């Protein structure tokens, strides 16, 4: 009777030679097809692909990286997919990477500063060829202490100092100008008691390079450009940038300033919470209070009423970040580069009742008007 083993023998994963034997070609030909090299006849390529499916072969990333120096895998590290913006942005990155033959490993740093520090310092092990990283909670001194990133890195978002480590680049949107345009739009509709909901206070005060601080600065600059002052209470502090924070922040704001007639929100999630609070209080939007968001998330056209918002060009952001990262992976070692991507103002019914909307036609989508552009600081 043959001896038995307490554990079953592991079957080795399919290899190139298995595909080559089934397809009746050389291992080199299979490798050329797997790596999408040209000069393979169409009928041979199709035969190899059918064999790959039959044997279940999948290239091993580690082996491919050793052989070619690149795995075609990149890491996208974002703060949390609970934010509508980051889930939407992540899909744009995944779509663009797939068009380039790359795979995105999605990593959430929702664990807080330590989780973000792990990304900044290169993870505990290398994950792919490079990383696109949106920090949210890291102290700026950590960037100053780092001479070079451990792997090719492109930063996105706003929470970054002026000086970046070698080996990295930065793709951003002009948050101050965008918030300026959002506020100027409300002013152009005749609003004069305008508040900002979205400042986040910490023990050290407001972070100078945070989204909340930059968008608040744009809001205040627009008021000043129109000869209006902002009372301290017209900038509403919130705990975070989720919908419940907008709901609670609007209640506090309107308890202090019941005559507010316009609200600029730090992001769309806050704005959706603000809209819910206004409905609860019986305030009509936009007749009594106009509301504008930021991010143009997929929910924005379907709020009640549809939300006017700043729309970052997410496709351009993903395209630019992947271009820069690819250049770094391929050997570019110049100083850090900063690229600004565009945005537009999407006007919907939360700020004005357009004649076309009243007639049943879609509300217009527009970039900032020439008058607003003239006011941009």
Describe the structure.
Helix 1 packs across helix 2, helix 1 packs across helix 3 (42-55) and helix 5 packs across helix 12 (314-329). The termini are far apart. Mean pLDDT is 84; it is low at 5-10 and 355-377. The protein has helices at residues 16-23, 27-34, 42-55, 61-68, 84-99, 113-120, 140-145, 175-188, 211-225, 243-256, 268-281, 314-329, 355-358, 370-375; strands spanning 73-78, 103-108, 130-133, 148-156, 166-172, 194-199, 235-237, 262-265, 290-294, 308-312, 338-340, 343-346. The strands form two sheets. The chain has a six-stranded parallel sheet with strand order 2-1-3-4-5-11, with helices on both faces. The chain has 377 residues and is an alpha/beta fold. The chain contains 14 helices and twelve strands. The protein has three domains: 16-59, 434 Repressor (Amino-terminal Domain) (Orthogonal Bundle), CATH 1.10.260.40; 73-172 and 314-340, 3-Layer(aba) Sandwich (Rossmann fold); 175-312 and 347-375, Rossmann fold (3-Layer(aba) Sandwich).
